[in-house]
Amino acid sequence: MKLPYNPNDKNSILEFAKLLKGKTLREACDETILEHDYSGKGNFGQILEKYYFLYEPNSESEPDFAIAGLELKSTPLKQLQTNEFRSKERLVLNIINYLEVVNQEFETSSFWKKNANILLVFYLHQTGYNILDYLIKLVDEWNFPNTDLEIIKKDWQIIKQKIENGKAHELSEGDTFYLGACTKGGKGGNLRAQPNSDIPAKQRAYSLKQGYVNHIIASIANEPTGIYGKLISSVAIAKIQTIEDVVISKFKPYYGKTIEQILALTGVELNTKAKSFYASLTKAILGIELNKEIEEFEKAEIIVKTVRLKENNLPKEDISFPNFKYEEIVNEEWDDSDFKDILEHKFLFVFFQFENKQLVLRKVKFWNMPYSDIMEAEKVWAKTKDIVANGQIVKEIRKGIRLTNFPNKKFNSVSHVRPHASNAADTYPLPTRDGLTNATEYTKQCFWLNNTYVRDEIYLK
DNA sequence: GCATGATCATGC
DNA sequence: GCATGATCATGC
Predict the structure, then answer these.
(1) Are residues A194 and A73 both part of a single domain?
(2) In sequence order, which residues have a C-beta less than 8 Å from that of residue A11 and are 6 or more positions away?
(3) What confidence score (pLDDT) does residue A32 get?
(4) Strand C closer than 7 A to residue A323 Cβ
(5) Where residue A315 sits, what CATH number does that domain have?
(6) Does residue A90 fall inside a structural domain?
(7) Which bases of chain C come closer than 7 Å to a protein CB?
(8) In this structure, is the CB of residue A254 within 7 Å of any atom belonging to strand C?
(9) Over the stretch A246-260, which tens digit does the pLDDT of each residue have?
(10) In this structure, are A307 and A216 located in the same domain?
């Protein structure tokens, strides 16, 4: 069959691909597509390959357009209130072959062979739409900038090293910065063999963090980049230092200093009462202008948490996460739950400690939750889901105060559930009536990290 | 002194 | 109006 483009010529492929812009699959593809039933189901990428580019999916290790060296990837966008586009999710790349990766070097790896040059097709996801009717918004090729590539190489090494250590089953997206190892494949996850361990490991694929994809989108859409400040200013620095190295070396001179002293030393004037005070102080220490975002943190989706320790090392407060919605959690599975997603992020903890009523900077620490603790957190999540689903939130009403069955600090050493609302009347709707109160809504709650956990497993380790 | 439920304050 | 970081109040 004569193709409408030359699959061996990159420019020809790109030119043909860009004709997709502003169209839906239904408009862009051959009419034979209409003979198939893709109502809601199916995979955008497969339809794009088969009915637009008119080829059958080929071997796993070569890029889709092998001779042109171009890998085709389609991925959904969401639109903000401001009309700007953001990635709806991480960009999932090829599956990690645990048995083979340990014998590869980055330059010869299946990741690099396949994804060095990617043809990206971004479509606008709209709830309730047929997959054929999503509007294609952006189409372009993507090459990793040199500085990013150095960080990605290090990420790849971290993933490889963990597999080499027989810990493929403990991989987490939080292990790395831009390039992640995300779970892929149905409920329960397809299990695969791994080298150096008999434990079957969940199938995972290389993926680019959602925050990284947002930067790809901004770059392709030619959005202004001036709103970002960089920690790593050149490839030369990226080759010898990690994001972690750079951040820690900038914070270290301020260890042991009070907030007042740090402000004096950085010469930045900040309102210590402002909600954004700690975020601003972090930027000041890192040498980032206050009106800019930290590019590397956004790309890696690093969650910064400031902790104030009491003199006995116990954090003054537990650490909160966003509220969960009762109607959503009962329909979630752990593997695609919001809570697991958060816990698989990379965190930067900034520890201050009270010393004679003054706050002193102790240290900063990059951290992601170990596998065994994520499994502990899963118990908290599962119990919470169960209690909501069965309408058993309220255990007892004592003096007008509702005691709940939500997992408390005694239930689990990692995490607990507690209210997080303006007041008791600040609620989310319930999926089922609560047995004791017959309620249709309940005070907003969220998952918290136990302060004892933060002390023992993050600060003191 | 801590655990748990409740609430406040800021900023978008 | 809401999300988020921070804090309070009460009882054991």
Answers:
(1) yes
(2) none
(3) 67
(4) yes
(5) 3.40.600.10
(6) yes
(7) 3-7, 11
(8) no
(9) 999 999 999 999 998
(10) no
Examine the pLDDT at A104 and tell me if it is beyond 70: yes
- Whether A130 is covered by a domain: the verdict is yes
| Measured CA A289 to C1' B10 distance, in angstroms | 22
Q: Give the tens place of pLDDT for each residue, A367-381.
A: 999 999 999 999 999
Task: Tell me the helices (H) and strands (E) count for chain A, helix number first.
Answer: 16, 21
pLDDT range class, residue A435, cuts 50, 70, 90: confident
Question: Is A187 a residue whose pLDDT tops 70?
Answer: no
Asked if residue A371 is part of any domain, the answer here is yes
The answer to pTM > 0.85 is yes
What ranges in A252-353 are assigned the alpha helix state H? 259-266, 277-286, 295-300, 326-329, 338-343
Identify nearest nucleotide to residue A422 by CA to C1′ distance: B7
User: Shortest CA–C1' contact from A423: which nucleotide?
Assistant: B7
The CA-CA-CA angle for residues A243, A337, A204, to 5°, reads: 60
**A 422-441, residues with C-beta < 7 Å of strand C:** 422
Estimate in Å the CA A266 to C1' C3 gap, whole number: 30
Asked if A408 CB < 7 A from strand C, the reply is no
Measure A378 CA to C10 C1' (Å). 30
* Contact status, residue A305 vs residue A317, Cβ threshold 8 Å: no
Verify if strand B has an atom below 7 Å from the CB of A432.
no
pLDDT in tens, A330-369: 999 998 899 999 999 999 999 999 988 889 999 999 999 9
Question: What residues make up the domain containing A312?
Answer: 301-459
For residue A274, give the 3-state DSSP assignment: coil
